[in-house]
Write a structure and sequence with these properties.
By secondary structure, the chain is α+β, with helices and mostly antiparallel strands. It has helices at residues 51-64, 87-103, 109-115, 124-131, 175-184, 190-210, 213-230, 232-235, 243-253, 275-289; strands at 2-13, 22-41, 44-48, 70-77, 134-137, 150-154, 160-167, 258-261, 268-273, 293-298. Helix content is 40%, strand content 25%. The strands form two sheets. Strands 1, 2, 3, 4, 5 and 6 form a six-stranded mixed β-sheet that branches. Strands 8-9-7-10 form a four-stranded antiparallel β-sheet.
């Protein structure tokens, strides 16, 4: 099974005044990817990158469904951990999907997420896993432990390219630290929340549908600037200070039309039109970054996780 990195473009609402919290917009990048294989077994074993986490997700899934059998999981390649690319969610869902296939269970993405304890705040990774593209999810009700609903999914124009940069350094916030961070965040103004929703509905989404990269880029950058301020008290600014922030501005200076930081970072991204333009921008960033990080370039993924059965590979 292959799953794709999730880019988180922004949160919709940290106020909850309309009865739902969080929500958000994001997309599936074509690189980097996660590759996992699994087979039925008497106990739970895992090997490869992130083997410990893979085994724990398998145990959660089996316990949730009261299954007495086991699984052997091999993580052939993992997404960069705690980088803002949804590595935990994609691994959890990949393991859950593999087990669901092996044991003939429901593969609905919301059920998979519930079985392995994901989508407790953001459901972007769940919906990009399910179908790729640009997704908008409607947030969760505070009184229900359920995945936020998919509100919209659009394919990106095939010529658009995304350059994803993962600099070495301090990992992004996750787990208990992330829960504590959200608890400490001040509530944004009602004006800001309404402005983000307006931008998404009347500029961001229509621009993708029309293939208008200039408008999309302006909308995405504005969303990042507004929502980045919501997290500034915890992360130290609109973008994570240091290399991540510098790379966001460098990507913009070097021609990326829409730029931003994915979730808590340190991953950042820039969007351009044309394969050659994307490759040139990626190479320019690699020259600056050297060995102090990784750079990926390619189109957005137009489909969700890919599954091959009975040993048949891509």
């Amino acid at each position: 099974m292959e799953a794709y990195a999730r880019l988180h473009f922004g949160v919709l609402d940290l106020r909850g005044a309309r009865g739902r919290w969080f929500g958000g917009v994001g997309a599936a990048a074509s690189e980097p990817t996660l590759l996992v294989s699994a087979s039925r077994a008497d106990s739970v074993t895992a090997e490869g990158e992130d083997a410990h986490r893979a085994a724990e997700f398998a145990r959660q899934f089996l316990s949730h469904h009261r299954i007495t059998g086991g699984v052997s999981v091999h993580v052939h390649s993992a997404l960069p951990s705690h980088a803002g690319l949804g590595s935990g969610t994609q691994l959890a869902l990949a393991v859950a999907r593999a087990l669901a296939e092996l044991y003939g269970l429901d593969t609905d993405p919301r059920e998979l997420a519930r079985a392995v304890g994901r989508a407790r705040r953001s459901a972007i990774g769940t919906w990009t896993f399910a179908g790729g593209g640009l997704v908008v999810e409607g947030g969760r009700r505070p009184d229900r432990d359920e995945c936020g609903p998919l509100v919209a999914r659009l394919p990106f124009p095939s010529s658009w390219r995304c350059v994803v940069v993962v600099p070495d350094g301090t990992p992004g916030i996750s787990g208990a630290e992330e829960a504590d961070a959200f608890a400490r965040l001040p509530k944004p103004s009602e004006h800001d929340v309404e402005k983000v929703a307006h931008i998404i509905l009347m500029s961001f989404l229509p621009a993708v549908a029309d293939g208008d990269l200039a408008t999309f880029g302006r909308a995405l950058t504005e969303i990042q600037e507004i929502t980045g301020q919501w997290f500034a008290s915890v992360q130290g600014g609109t973008f994570a200070p240091g290399r991540s922030r510098d790379l966001v501005y460098r990507l913009a200076d070097w021609g990326a039309v829409g730029v931003g930081q994915s979730s808590w970072g340190p991953a950042v991204y820039g969007i351009v039109d044309g394969a050659d333009v994307g490759k040139r921008l990626a190479e320019r960033i690699r020259t600056v970054l050297g060995s102090a990080g990784r750079v990926y370039e390619g189109p957005f993924s137009s489909h969700g996780a890919r599954v091959w059965k009975d040993g048949r590979g891509p």
